[in-house]
TrEMBL record:
GO MF terms, alphabetically ordered: G protein-coupled receptor activity
Bilayer topology: Multi-pass membrane protein
Region of interest (Disordered), ranges: 315-367
Keywords, comma-separated and alphabetical: Membrane, Transmembrane, Transmembrane helix
A biological-process GO annotation: adenylate cyclase-activating G protein-coupled receptor signaling pathway
Protein name as catalogued: Glucose receptor Git3 N-terminal domain-containing protein
GO cellular component, one term: plasma membrane
Amino acid sequence: MSTLDSQFPFGQRIGLFILAEISAISASSVVILLGYIAYSAVTIRQGAERRWRLTSPVHLFLLNQLVCDLVQALGGLMNMKWMIDGNVHGGAFCTAQGLIKQLADVGTALSAGNVAIYTFSTLIFRLKPDTNLPRAALIVVGIWIAIILDVAINIGINGASRFYGPTGPWCWITAEFSVQRTVADFLWMWISAFSSLLAYVAVFLVLKGFIVVEGWRVKWTPRQESPTIPQSNILAYKMLAYPIIYIITVLPLAAARYNTFEKRDTPFAVVVLADGFYLSSGFLNVALYRYTRPYLLPHRMDSLEDQSHPTFELASSQSHLPGSNVFGDNHRNSPSLMEHKSADPEYGASHQYGTHSSKTSSGRGYVRNDKMWEGELTGGDAANVDEDI
């Protein structure tokens, strides 16, 4: 199906149209979110309860992931041309799609892996969240240098028009370069998915109490049931959704492509389903961003119906006792977090959201207060989990 004489059947055209529509939804979602963030950072000033500011490395990492999602969606949108033409043929447009698809594959893989590693190191080993934005920017620059080198080396050796070409219903790395397909594209995706899965399992076991981390030592401990889930763990569970989204969207695609590598017939409906999952990652990440980080989406104070947002403090590190969670609040043996704060005279009448200044016994507790939305650190080496993880 790589020449003008070969026409797609109606079913394949419908499949390409569906993929283009999914890409359009993802691209629109990412553009709207990035546009709103830009509007917030530049425009919302007077009367704003909060505005978006780039104060935490995770902000930069998630922005980078959204940009990669946008590139990925652009590659999917280009399928519309093949749907209209009824065939795939070589040329500048085909080469551009192949290049964009490789950029997106490697970019989303490295970005998702970066977020997973950052979350893992902060939650499991209680490493202080790095607030050095220049260092975080260097990490992002390093990711893009790796992406560009991955693409440029192959183009320089093989030539773009030869390296990229028609591959079934769209353009990508041609079958002539099967080794490069694996090394320069799939390998990054598999490594990222595998590392994200390991990070998810490790964090899940710690949060459920099966594993206790003491410094750099890891111990297995019998699990004890807790009647309630601490707020700190709820936040951590939400952050685990990011690597899960990547795993869910990548594995079907990897399975379908592996099946193709093995020269097995793969129904086009399966290809569309797998690619549809993959191309939907932009929309899913935007929805997840809204779910896990709602207070990073700013609005003015007069539009708020409820100003009584809950507050919480993650206890200091007498942690790592059997039964304590990864952040150190021994929820199995202690009163609830809110009861503890209500009974503490240190808070008194200033316990309302946005007014209190909290303390921790060792300076390692994470505090959520009115400054958290700007990512400011409060007290000693304290950092805000909701912002800095």
